[in-house]
Amino acid sequence: MSATIFQLRHAAERRAALRVLALTAASWLGHGSVRAQGSPNAAAPKAGPLRIGFQKGSINLVLAKSLGLLEKRFPAGSVSWIEFPAGPQLLEALAVGSIDFGATGDSPPVFAQAAGKDLFYVGAEPPKPDSSALLVRPDSPLKTLADLKGRRIALQKGSSAHFLLVQAVRRGGLAWGEIQPVYLAPADARAAFERGSVDAWAIWDPYYAAAEIDSPVRVLATSRGLTNNNSFYLASRGLAGNEAALRELFAALTEADRYLQTQRKDAAQRFVQFSGLDPATVQRVLERRPPSPVGPLTAELVREQQQVADAFTQLGLIPKTLQVAEIVWRPGQSLVAQR
Predict the structure, then answer these.
(1) Are residues 20 and 164 in the same domain?
(2) What family does the entry list (predicted)?
(3) What is the rounded CA–CA span in Å between residue 77 and residue 98?
(4) Structural domain of 174
(5) Tens digit of each residue's pLDDT (9 = 90 or more) over 244-290
(6) Among 43, 82, 84, 208, which is disulfide-ready with 22 (CB 3.0 to 4.6 Å)?
């Protein structure tokens, strides 16, 4: 199964934002001449690409790519797209300067911050608690979360599935040391799960939906009641210092979400064509996905993310206590004082 993933409403606001973007884009895209024309492509400097990291489940990014929404807002030829199998790999690329912007679940940024990576939370989507789950085979003897004791459980280390499993183990009255985590990327985890090498698999959509459609599985638990399964957008320091560019990105991603809500059939088909996923899998993914406009992090989201970081610290899975708020971008606030 291949996976090549994926206006401002008021004209006056758009023109103003583009003027700022034209003047400041060189700080993160590179240096070049600015041409004072009316279109986004003419108003920005000749520069290198805005590199977007995405995963199969990054639906707003997938649709934005399919509809060309970023290409309409940024300089011609400046936007490029790079696929990753999971959030940890994406954030490693962001930290070393291979990409400028990307989306992940709740856990990858915590591990990245713990490792001292220079990146920032810049945006978020609403919670999706039904979009990840802990799966077992239909004939598995595991019936409750307490039954996980001593079992081998596949998951991508540092992914949103990691925090789901942490919470599931806690809810089952177990200590983390009473299970056997098996750290595997999604494709390898599915193979191990299907051949019976592991007893359970913690996973997110669309891998979760694909397993439900393609294979006999049973859901031991979803994230609902365990985690909110939040989705975050992260950026390099350079891009996080360019508020005009971030607002253009948020506008494009929110437009992609509106397109999904109003043109569902076409949006679903675009996701099928772009991702290579089965239509039934895509339908399942969309059924459990709420409307997901993109904007800056709220105080509540920062608090929830701090709880994720604290849980990993308490278990010794990251080496130090973190303050999530230290790497959260806030509109109108300079990053000079931040790390």
Answers:
(1) no
(2) Belongs to the bacterial solute-binding protein SsuA/TauA family.
(3) 17
(4) 132-222
(5) 999 999 999 999 999 999 999 999 999 999 888 999 999 999 999 99
(6) 43
